[in-house]
Amino acid sequence: EKLIDLGKYIEIGINKLEQNFSGLWGAIDGVISWTVDSMNEVLLSVPFYIIIALVAVGAYYANAGKRAFEKEGLKKGAGLAIFAVLGLLLIFAMGYWDEAIQTTTLVIVSTLIALIFGVPLGIVAARSTTADVIIRPILDLMQTMPAFVYLIPAIFFFSVGNTPGVVATVIFSLPPAVRLTSLGIRNVAEDVIEAGRAFGATERQILFKIQLPLAKPTILAGINQVILLALSMVVIASMVGAKGLGSIVYQGIQQNDIAKGFESGLGIVILAIILDRTTQAIAKKK
What we know:
Layout: H1 6-20, H2 22-45, H3 48-64, H4 71-93, H5 97-127, H6 129-144, H7 147-158, H8 162-186, H9 190-198, H10 203-232, H11 234-238, H12 245-255, H13 258-284
Helix pairs in contact: 2-5, 2-8, 3-4, 3-13, 4-13, 5-6, 5-8, 5-10, 5-12, 6-8, 7-8, 8-10, 9-10, 10-13, 12-13
């Protein structure tokens, strides 16, 4: 027998939020759905070979950097570029190109939303001890709570479709953006900040011209983690109607179809490797 029915009070609170802010949830649903659908429409209208070429060039330059036209740059950048071409061609040949684009769109939208909220929260947490004390346990809750739990209120507020999948993905992938932004700013040497103040820099100038530039590698590492966590959520998000490779994996589970599950899972792995290696290369640049 329960001594404290905490879940009941949480349910009452969620019901109140749904009733009192129904217009807000509708607006959020409309914006996210329009963004995802529009991006899908644009990307799917572009021939697959053009997208593959652009991804390969981007992966090459991310690794080669300023030495793109030198022998050393060719060695660094060619490997990932070749992998991107072969991997994406394999996805196309397996017949999952549209689903791969839909998955990429969900990851991009989720990552952008997570960064829009995560980076400012990380800045606040780094510059205010009180804010850090408040934000940290919330992040712990977000990271340790089973991802399936996020789907319940997401469905309640937004029904089924891409929006609840994006919302659940944002909640799950937001903490690294906050934590690593805060960590990067806190690790900036104090004497550098004092030198800025000695030259008359304002707090705003110290933030944007000293702390954020020096914290950039750590922040980019946070972006890398956000992307990978967002990709790890695509299968779970498919359970509430999100489209993409995750929905094919889910179909494979339901139908006990090993071939379908393996092929779509392999597609997710290919996307993850391309995004991970590219963002890591960008983060390592000084």
